[in-house]
# Entry
Amino acid sequence: MSTLRHTSFSCPPAFAVVVAALVIGFAMDRLPDAVFMPLFCRLPARIAAGYYGAPLSTPDLAFCARGVGVTVARGCGGAGFFALCAALLATRAWERGDFATLRGRLQAAGAFAGAFVAAWLATLSVNAMRIVFIVPVTAAARLAPESLRAGIHMAAGMAVFMSAFAALWVFTERPRPRKASI
# Structure
């Protein structure tokens, strides 16, 4: 007697994350500023300005901290980080999903929705930390030649975002079952 077994689509997690991140990133680039700025820039700018005790100028999202002028623009919103986090968390939800039953499919749909909310909250938090971190980096970069300052700013931002993404990857990694040795 044979039984039907549910088999799910399987692909390497890193490949799935890359493809999903590209799709999400493409969609993020299409959001108008009127939607993107309030969703991704306003709250991190408020948190960073509050950290330094500086008033936040709106609507340009600018403040001055320790003699450094900070303006949070669309490029500071962390869209790429959001795309990576959403893709990673959605992929993790897919890996853990049970699609054989209606209940399992509903739970998977909830996990997918939760992946996007968690990615958005992570993006806001990490972006606020990045803005706070960039103030002393920018102050120190004044000692570097003018031609290197933009690269220093970008490298500092990448260090914050990529270390947070690596931590998220490790934190959500599912332990692989060990094979018994003979």
Summary: The longest strand covers residues 62-65. Helices lie at 13-29, 33-40, 42-51, 79-96, 102-141, 146-172.
